[in-house]
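Example (one chain per record):
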Amino acid sequence: MLGLVAKTGQQEDWAYERELASSLLGDTRLYRMAAEERGMQPLADVMGDLELVLLQASMADQPTEASLHQLQRLIRRRDLLTKMNGY
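Predicted structure:
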């Protein structure tokens, strides 16, 4: 998340962040499902938001400035960094 948020959108290649997002997606989904099964809904909600961001980042074939800004808005709108810091 920090790598995506820190990007400026100045034609930067964010292939590393996309690869990392892709590799973390499966584990994130399992953690979300486990939290839901255990009734830990606040954690499940955070993991669901993270899963959404990771999915969108991993599927960005053409790393454009617009797609990067869209991900950054999603991260900010969901206050994901603050919520993740709480866990």
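Caption: The mean pLDDT is 88.
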